[in-house]
């Protein structure tokens, strides 16, 4: 009947009636303004979904809320939207998953056939796949377990915390495959600290994990591992050693490790990093790898406001060769065979100097698995430099950090623009040999923190409300999910004609997945529909409408 019901009542009924075989084009069933407040829903819409077998209702839909910058999906104690696990379709059928700005779609699924009659209207982009020509193997997509992320998510109820990590790592979520862990404090901590703040404790007798690890990060890492749809590669990054190990005696500002290569301080700091790995392993979290130092060149700035330690490329090489590399291997972290030590962990502008200094050196090369890069300030160096590095040294490049702010508002709840920047960078870097992409904080609060330095607030895929009764999935979350759920570890990028299809406003990237299926990710930043005219040998041709201001993932078997 037409009896109106509150959104919370609707959600209870929907949950009760929802069955695995019923499925939807989400936006068709659910009105665009389901809110936590008193918006009225009509049961007739639900009954329509139950009675119309042509609608495929699989995932729990977004509960939208509107802010000046756009829409978020609200999760609370009663409801959290999901993304269904991917399943095979018959030969010749393409699954299309779409999220957009103006239609409020989030992973809306439709089917289309190769060699069909569809002839959508719009500018046509011709792309031919070359499935026998494969490029880099992918490590996956993921996010970072900063103190701020863990503290914010730790404010949620147990049920909502589980929903959040299912959203990130679960089979009904984004299926993240990477997780970066801060080694002691960073700018996104509530205080500056290390694991041994007892001055001149060269033997590290006072080393110990802190509450941020034991009460927040480690339990949440274990929960993520429990919920994960696939094995996750955890890796650590250190922002700063204990302040007493630095030349300036504080965690921030202009300072390097004291005393130089071969000294007791350099040896002690390398053992400090190994102790971190051992301590997490003892708590049940085995790390796949680590970077030597987060943003090492910031440590030469007198006014740098948060945790850092300066390393030149030559200093990092000497630290690896004389201290960290041998100590990792002695402790059983046999980089690069069963452990992945990464250099740089800073912006693209530094990558040529770092790789030339460290990877071209035959001794340090033997300890290094790959190069970590950040996306900040990269316009001065072409992205093709990653192709050159991978071809020369045959070691992976992993993007280890990206984050965004939205003008004067660091969070920009609902901003589609922030999500588009992610889509652009993942596409451009993976088309140039980058093997994976790691976002910065998994979650932040509505002010974009906490951060002890007070100057680095930004947005995140999930924002937790001030009272922790709900959290908001921003468009950034869905942008990441359009990659992470489809471009799983072990996927190989497929060559195309043209080599780099599209422009910065419309791009197409294809991958052969380990199970033999093909995943394609595209985005359209134009204000009108575009057409992807895709040709695949032994499959045929398909013309796909790519909606205005949309993110899209395609999958066929």
Please, how many domains?
A: 2
Overall 3D geometry? globular
Q: What is the CATH C level class of the largest domain, in words?
A: Alpha Beta
CATH T-level topology of the largest domain: TIM Barrel
Query: Which parts are unreliable, with pLDDT below 50 for 5 consecutive residues or more?
Result: 1-57
Distance between the termini: 42 Å
* Corresponding CATH superfamily of the largest domain: Glycosidases
Q: What is the SS-derived class?
A: alpha/beta
| The CATH architecture of the largest domain | Alpha-Beta Barrel
Largest sheet: 10 strands, mixed
Description:
- The chain is 26% helix and 26% strand.
- It has 557 residues and is an alpha/beta fold.
- It has 2 domains: 95-136 and 495-556, Golgi alpha-mannosidase II (Immunoglobulin-like, Sandwich); 138-489, TIM Barrel (Alpha-Beta Barrel), CATH 3.20.20.
- The strands form 4 sheets. Strands 5, 6, 7, 19, 20, 21, 22, 23, 24 and 25 form a 10-stranded mixed sheet that branches. An 8-stranded parallel beta barrel has the order 8-9-10-11-12-13-14-15, surrounded by 7 helices.
- Strand 21 and strand 22 form a beta hairpin.
- Helix 5 (158-169) crosses helix 6, helix 7 packs across helix 8 and helix 8 packs across helix 9.
- The longest helix has 19 residues, at 264-282.
- It is globular and about 75 Å long.
- The two termini are 42 Å apart.
- Residues 1-57 have low confidence and may be disordered.
- GO terms for molecular function: glucosylceramidase activity.
- Residues 140-487 form the Glycosyl hydrolase family 30 TIM-barrel domain.
- Residues 490-554 form the Glycosyl hydrolase family 30 beta sandwich domain.
């Amino acid at each position: 009947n037409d009896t109106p019901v509150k959104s919370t009542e609707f959600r209870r009924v929907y949950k009760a009636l929802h069955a695995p075989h019923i499925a939807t084009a989400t936006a068709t069933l659910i009105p665009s303004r389901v809110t936590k407040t008193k918006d009225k829903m009509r049961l007739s819409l639900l009954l329509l979904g139950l009675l119309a077998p042509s609608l495929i209702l699989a995932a729990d839909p977004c509960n939208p809320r509107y802010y000046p910058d756009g829409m978020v999906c609200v999760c609370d104690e009663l409801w959290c939207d999901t993304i269904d696990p991917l399943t095979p379709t018959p030969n010749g059928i393409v699954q299309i998953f779409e999220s957009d700005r103006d239609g409020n779609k989030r992973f809306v699924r439709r089917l289309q056939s190769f060699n069909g009659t569809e002839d959508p209207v719009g500018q046509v982009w011709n792309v031919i796949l070359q499935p026998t020509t494969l490029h880099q193997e992918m490590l996956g997509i993921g996010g970072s377990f900063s103190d701020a992320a863990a503290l914010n998510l730790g404010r949620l109820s147990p049920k909502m915390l589980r929903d959040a990590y299912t959203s990130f790592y679960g089979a009904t979520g984004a299926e993240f495959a990477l997780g970066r862990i801060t080694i002691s404090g960073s700018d996104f901590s509530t205080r500056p600290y290390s694991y041994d703040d007892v001055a001149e404790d060269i033997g590290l007798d006072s080393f110990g994990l802190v509450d941020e690890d034991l009460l927040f990060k480690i339990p949440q890492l274990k929960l993520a591992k429990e919920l994960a749809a696939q094995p996750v590669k955890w890796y650590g990054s250190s922002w700063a050693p204990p302040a007493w190990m630095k030349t300036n005696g504080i965690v921030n500002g202009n300072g390097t490790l004291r005393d130089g290569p071969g000294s007791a301080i350099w040896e002690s700091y390398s053992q400090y990093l190994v102790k971190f790995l051992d301590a997490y392993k003892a708590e049940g979290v085995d790390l796949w790898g680590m970077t030597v130092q987060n943003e090492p060149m910031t440590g030469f700035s007198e006014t740098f406001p948060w945790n850092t330690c300066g390393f030149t490329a030559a200093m990092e090489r000497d630290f690896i060769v004389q201290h960290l590399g041998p100590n990792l291997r002695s402790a059983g972290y046999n980089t690069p065979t069963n452990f992945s030590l990464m250099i740089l962990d800073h912006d693209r502008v530094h990558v040529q100097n770092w790789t030339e200094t460290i990877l071209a050196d035959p001794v340090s090369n033997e300890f290094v698995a790959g190069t970590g890069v950040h996306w900040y300030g990269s316009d001065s160096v072409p992205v093709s430099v990653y192709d050159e590095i991978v071809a020369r040294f045959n070691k992976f490049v992993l993007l280890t950090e990206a984050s965004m702010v939205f003008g004067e508002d660091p969070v920009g709840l609902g901003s589609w623009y922030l999500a588009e920047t992610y889509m652009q960078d993942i596409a451009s870097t993976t088309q140039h040999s980058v093997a994976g992409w790691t976002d910065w904080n998994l979650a932040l609060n509505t002010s974009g923190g906490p951060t002890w330095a007070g100057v680095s607030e930004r947005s995140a895929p999930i924002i937790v409300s001030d009272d922790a009764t709900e959290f908001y999935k921003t468009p950034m979350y869905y942008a990441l999910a359009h990659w992470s759920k489809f471009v799983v570890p072990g996927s190989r990028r497929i060559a195309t004609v043209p080599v780099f299809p599209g422009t910065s406003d419309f791009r197409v990237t294809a991958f052969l997945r380990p199970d033999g299926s093909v995943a394609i990710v595209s985005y359209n930043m134009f204000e009108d529909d575009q057409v992807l005219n895709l040709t695949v040998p032994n499959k045929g041709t398909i013309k796909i409408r790519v909606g205005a201001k949309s993110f899209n993932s395609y999958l066929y078997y």
